[in-house]
Amino acid sequence: MKTALITGATSGIGRATARLLAKNHYRLIICGRREDRLAELQDEFSHLTKVHTLNFDVRHKKEVAQSLKSLPKEFANIDVLINNAGNAHGLDPIENGDVHDWDAMIDINVKGLLYVSKEVIPGMVERRSGHIINIGSIAGKETYTNGNVYCATKHAVDAINQGMRMDLNQYGIRVGAINPGMVDTEFSEVRFKGDKQRAENVYKGFEPLKAEDIADVIHFVISRPYHVNIADLLILPTAQASATIVNKKL
Ligand code: NDP
Ligand code: 8X3
User: Fold this and answer.
1) Does residue 250 lie within any of the structural domains?
2) 87 C-alpha vs ligand 1 centroid, how far in Å?
3) Structural domain range at position 226
């Protein structure tokens, strides 16, 4: 039985991935800040597999380290790390950008990903085995108007993904990025700070991806034979051709 750690497992892509991996009998470590959701998911999955919850904010280096060092022995050897926790905060032109939003995105999407990886990679190196999936975005391949800092964080994830793959190659550790286009999750609600109407409008007039679509791809990637490393995937809804070209029928 493989052990998978998923950050941002309380919602969207992370939650759908946790569900699918539970059904496929991965031993799961699910992470997030919302303790109530972690408890609900643990309850939901417990008849399928072994589940451990870790409640931490990826921004807090010490919290991340303490949480990961607290893992019980049977969860300590992580085979699959899914660096998924992340969000956009705001969608403003650079001249009006809120520095708190910038801090949040850089601290969560970039530094948080690094803090978690820093705790997990040494065990993988020691065991000469492991698979890291970094959730990037089409925003890591293109920049769009008002996307400035969010796009920068996802471009950073793209670079970190490539760098990790190069550095960990000698240990036989697989590293790959999955870069979704528009997925209907809580993402836009977070971006627009709880404005549900504005969030719903993002996905109106076309069929966006569902979190489960990305979960399917993640499961496919991590279940390939060992000699296959899917290094970088871009997954779009059929109606989306680029970060800004979406065939909406409104
Ligand atoms: P959701 O908002 O639904 O989920 C985000 C997850 O990240 C939640 O589980 C949340 O958990 C966790 N998270 C956020 N901030 C923190 C933090 N400070 N510490 C720990 N966990 C945190 O969005 P998605 O599922 O859509 O997003 C998942 C990933 O996919 C992100 O990296 C996002 O950038 C990426 N992505 C999303 C796309 C989309 O269109 N939806 C497209 C391309 C990429 P909690 O609040 O409980 O801590
Ligand atoms: C999320 C997709 O297009 O809002 O990464 O940047 S997008």
Assistant:
1) no
2) 5
3) 3-235
pLDDT of residue 136: 99
Tokens, residue 141 = 């391949």
Active-site entry in 26, 115, 150, 203: 150
| ipTM computed for the complex | 0.99
Query: CATH number of the domain that 24 lies in?
Result: 3.40.50.720
Angle at 91 between CA 181 and CA 207, to 5 degrees: 30
**pLDDT recorded at residue 208:** 98
Q: What pLDDT score does 34 carry?
A: 98
Whether the CB-CB separation of 28 and 198 falls below 8 Å is answered with: no
Please indicate, yes or no, if residue 246 is contained in any of the structural domains.
Answer: no
Q: In this structure, is residue 241 part of a structural domain?
A: no
Predicted confidence (pLDDT) per residue in 82-106, tens digit:
999 999 999 999 999 999 999 999 9
Low-confidence ranges of the chain (pLDDT < 50): none
The closest residue, in CA terms, to atom 6 on ligand 2 is 139
According to DSSP, the residues that pair with 179 across neighbouring strands are 234
135: Cβ below 6 Å to ligand 2? no
Residue type, 170: Q
**Ligand 2 center to 145 CA (angstroms):** 12
Residues 6+ apart with CB under 8 A from 189: 195, 196, 199
Report the 10 Å Cβ neighbour count for 85.
Answer: 25
Question: Is 203 one of the annotated active-site residues of the chain?
Answer: no
Q: pLDDT value at position 95?
A: 98
Which of 42, 84, 87, 135 is the pocket-test mutation for ligand 1 (most atoms within 8 Å of CB)? 87
Number of domains in the chain: 1
Within a domain: 29: yes
